[in-house]
Design goal:
It contains 18 helices and 3 strands. By secondary structure, it is mostly helical. The chain has 2 domains: 130 residues, no CATH class; 218 residues, MetI-like fold, CATH 1.10.3720. The longest helix has 48 residues.
Length: 439
């Protein structure tokens, strides 16, 4: 127990001691602030480094996808092979063995090749799709039968990988996917300017294929376009309408509280749950076609609606109450106040939420796998009900393929996906700035 005349310890310090204590405390706070800023700056720099590393890796592996090896063939459209009966019937022309034309063209360039094995190895330098290209050429122009023509056709994936330096030249000690004879023929083609890298139009014009050199992303791009377009048409008006009703017209009671809680919870539900829902309801109950953009759009609409509703409600809350009061004070009805004054001012925020929701929908894979969009689709879809796949699923499929050439196809598809996302977001930003109003 202290004496009544004794001063407390806090008041016994001299001004000099108090100033020293304050300085020490300030220094500790300043050091804490510097550490926090250092940690934050380090986290930002580390994140940028990882992103740059990811992008550099993807572009280093994927840029070569935009070039493809082609072999020049002097093709003789032999009537004895294409139309032996001379009937010019489309059925007989379509069923002809065009691989013989490829084999004959290669044999004519390398007359020293003899034997079935060497001939087979020689023909394998050319992609299996070359026969189908010649078939399409003859089917479109029947007058070519009996004529000669120079055609650049796809080389095989092994030749393409050798041209791009992705595989090593074989040696006697270390053989590779190509034999020594095949490398010798490749060198001769290079000397004769009959083998070169060209822009890979096949990658942007074809659908999926088992052969890497014939695989393209156009089918997946069209599937993504159909799916996202229908998702936007469904999710944006429904999400905005729900947000307007909940924020401007609905009475605050137990039911609206339950709805708000459920919307917030749905935004955090794993995406595969929506895929299971789509599989059970849209395909199992309603009988909609499996692996179709229609079903994918319905599933992605359910996935993006919570995000759009939450962002739209936040944008509506951001409009000052004075705007509402002024409109109502001038005699506007509540619906006129919302549609003519509040909604235009909240539209940029709503578009931002839509951008976030659509970006998430563009990158989703799990819910689309559940509804069958993982199927091997060769044909390019032409409607919302045709079988299709999307770019993220295409990346998933190619990344699981054992062929070395699919590694660059995977990275190339990721580059296309990033470009698709940039174009979509840029369009949305332009629209958002167009509708933006300041008060």
């Amino acid at each position: 127990m202290s004496n009544p005349g004794e001063r407390p310890a806090s008041t016994s310090r001299t001004p000099k001691e108090t100033a020293a204590l304050v300085a020490k405390t300030l220094n500790r706070r300043y050091w804490a602030e510097r550490r926090f800023r250092f940690y934050g700056l380090s986290a930002v720099i580390l994140g940028i480094v990882f992103v740059l590393f990811l992008f550099i890796t993807i572009f280093a592996k994927g840029m070569s996808t935009f070039q493809q090896s082609y072999i020049k063939l002097e093709v003789f459209y032999d009537p004895a092979i294409i139309d032996p009966n001379g009937t010019r019937k489309p059925e007989e022309i379509a069923n002809a063995d065009y691989l013989q034309l490829v084999r004959a063209s290669m044999k004519a360039r390398f007359p020293q090749v003899e034997g079935r094995k060497e001939t087979r190895d020689l023909t394998r330098l050319v992609s299996g799709g070359a026969a189908f290209d010649l078939r399409s050429r003859v089917m479109s122009t029947a007058d070519l039968i009996g004529q000669r023509e120079t055609q650049w056709v796809l080389a095989s994936d092994d030749v393409d990988m050798l041209m791009k330096g992705r595989i090593q030249r074989p040696t006697e000690e270390q053989p590779g996917p190509l034999s020594m004879d095949q490398v010798t023929w490749i060198d001769q083609l290079l000397k004769e300017d009959a083998l070169e890298l060209r822009f890979n139009t096949t990658f942007f014009s074809h659908g999926d294929s088992r052969e890497p050199e014939q695989a393209g992303v156009w089918g997946a791009v069209m599937g993504s376009l159909f799916t996202l377009a229908l998702t936007l048409l469904l999710s944006f008006p429904i999400g905005v309408a729900a947000a307007i009703y909940l924020e401007e017209f609905a009475h605050k009671n137990r039911w609206t509280d339950i709805i708000e809680v459920n919307i917030n919870n749905l935004a955090a539900v794993p995406s595969i749950v929506f895929g299971l829902l789509g599989l059970a309801v849209f395909i199992g109950f309603f009988g909609l076609p499996r692996s179709a953009p229609l079903v994918g759009a319905l599933v992605l609409t359910l996935l993006t609606l919570p995000t759009i509703i939450i962002a739209s409600r936040a944008a509506l809350k951001g409009v000052p109450p004075s705007i509402r009061e002024a409109a109502l004070g001038m005699g506007a009805s509540k619906i006129q106040m919302v549609t003519h004054h509040v909604l235009p001012l909240a539209m940029p925020g709503m578009l931002t939420g839509t951008i976030i929701g659509m970006a998430r929908a563009l990158g989703e894979t799990a819910p689309l796998l559940m509804i069958g969009m993982v199927a091997f689709i060769v044909d390019v879809p032409k409607s919302f009900t045709d079988p299709a796949t999307v770019l993220p699923v295409q990346v998933f499929l190619w990344s699981d393929s054992p062929e070395r050439a699919f590694v660059e196809r995977t990275s190339g598809a990721i580059i296309v996906l990033l470009g698709f996302l940039i174009v979509m977001n840029a369009t949305a930003v332009v629209l958002r700035n167009k509708f933006e109003r300041r008060w």
